[in-house]
Amino acid sequence: MQREDYSQRNMDVFNNLSDGKFIFVQDMRTGVTAWTNEAVQYLGLPGATMKDVITVVGEMIHPDDYDKWKSEIDRVFAMEIKDCFCSYNIRNAKGMYVPCIQKGKMVLNDEGVPVIFTGSITIQKKEKELDAITDLPKQAQFLEDLSAKKKSQNGWVAMAVEIKRFTSVNSLYGYDFGSKALYEIACFFKDVLGRRGRVYRSEGTEFLVLLEDYAIEDIRTVFDKVRTELAAFDVDGVTLNLDIIGGVLHTHNQAVSSQTILSCVLSALEKAREEDSYALVVFDDETQESHHKMMEMLDAIKASIRNGCEGFYLCYQPFVSTATGKIIGMEALVRFKNAVYGEVSPGRFVPHLEYHSCFYDLSMWILRRALTDTKELLATNPDFFNFSYHSPMIPCDSSSKSAINVKNCSAIYRPPPSNNSMIY
C-alpha cells in the first residue's frame, strides 16, 4: 500500500489565507515539502511540491542572512529547540529581496519521532494584515472590532498592556531572539484570554486587548496572572524576567467613538507608565469624561500655540534685593486664557505639553516676549540683568532653572550693534 504524503494532505485549506502569508508543510519521512499556490507565485518556486527544500529556499535567501537561517533550521531538525523563528530577506519572483519572518514547528508522533515540519513565511503588505512578528491583528483591526462590539450592544472592556524595559532583551540576546520572545508572549496572551477576548499588537511592546464584559476584579486577576507568568518566562531555555504595566477603560457609554476609547486606554497606560505603577490603572465613565474634556482643552491650547501663541500671556514674579530693596530680576510665568476655558492654570496644561513638539514654539515665544518686555526696564534699571526660565525643550545648565543675562542675549536675538543691551 502506498504511503500517504502528509505534505500534500489538505493543502487546499491553506490556499485561501490572507495575502502575504505563505504556508509550507514538510513530510519528514519522504522529505517532500508542499507550498501554497500564493507562495509558488510570489516567491517564484519551481513547483507546489519539492524534495530538496533547504537547497531551493537557501539559494533565495540573502547571503547576509543565510547563516542565521540555516542555523535555526538545523537546531529544529536536531531537536535542540521546538520552534523555528527567524527574520531574513528573501528573493521574490521579481528578483527583489524583501524582509520576511519565518515561523515553524516540528510535530512528533507518539514515539517522539519527527513526522511533520510545518510553518509560515510572512511578508507584510497591508495595514490591516497580521503583525509579522507576533501573528496578531494590528491596531486598525482593534478599532474595527471595537466598532462592531459597540454596534452589537454587547458588553466589552478595552485594555492596553506594555512590557517594560524590553530593550534589554534585545541588547542581551539580539533582535531575532527578542522578536521570538514577543511571538511567544503573544501566544501566551492568546492562551490566557481564550475565547473571552482578543489581543492585538499596537506599537513596540504595547498590546491591546478587547475583552468580554469582565468585572474589574476579574480583569485584575487576568492581569496579575500574566504578570506572574512573565516574571519567569522561558524562551528556548532562557528565562526572562519581564514585567508589565497596564491601563483599562471600563465604560457602558456606547456613544463614545472608537478612536476616543483607544485614546483613553492609551492614556490609562501612560498614567501607569508615569507612575511606574504595578497596579492596573482603571479609567471608568467618570474618568473617561474628564479625560475627554482634558484632551479637548489640550487640543485647543495646541491650536493656539500653532496660531502664534494666541491667548498666552506672561506674568512676572520680581526678585528683590534684600540689601537695596530694588528689583534686580524676575521670573517669567506663562498663563493662558480664552473664551471657552477662561483662565487655565499652567499646572493643567504644562505637564501634558512640555515634551510635545509644540512646546518648543511656546518656549521660544516666552523667551522673546520676556526679552521684549524687559528692554523697557533697562533704560531706568541698568543693573537689571537676569530673569529665570525653565523649559525641557531649551538647553540649560545642570540646575532646574537657568538665569539669562539680558545684556548677553545679542548672540541669539541680534540687536543693533550700537547698544547690546537693547533686546528685540
Name some characteristics of this structure.
424 residues; alpha+beta; 6-stranded antiparallel β-sheet; 5-stranded mixed β-sheet; 12 helices; elongated; disordered N terminus
Low-confidence stretches at least 5 residues in length (pLDDT < 50)?
A: 1-18, 395-424
Mean pLDDT: 80
Q: Proportion of β residues?
A: 25-35%
As a whole number of angstroms, the C-alpha radius of gyration is 30 Å
Q: Structural class of the secondary structure composition?
A: alpha+beta
Termini separation comes to 96 Å
The tally of strands reads 18
Oligomeric state of the chains in view: single chain
| Most strands sheet | 6 strands, antiparallel
Give the helix level as a range of percent. Answer: 25-40%
Query: What is the overall silhouette?
Result: elongated
Number of helices: 12
Strand order, largest beta sheet: 3-2-1-6-5-4
Please provide the ordered H/E string of secondary-structure elements.
EEHEHHEEEHEHHEEHEEEHEHEEEHHEEH
Structure description:
The structure is a single chain. The protein is 37% helix and 26% strand. It has twelve helices and 18 strands. The strands form four sheets. A six-stranded antiparallel sheet has the order 3-2-1-6-5-4. Helix 5 crosses helix 6 and helix 6 runs antiparallel to helix 7. The longest helix has 23 residues. The radius of gyration is 30 Å and the shape is elongated. The protein starts with 20 loop residues before the first strand and ends in an 11-residue tail after the last helix.
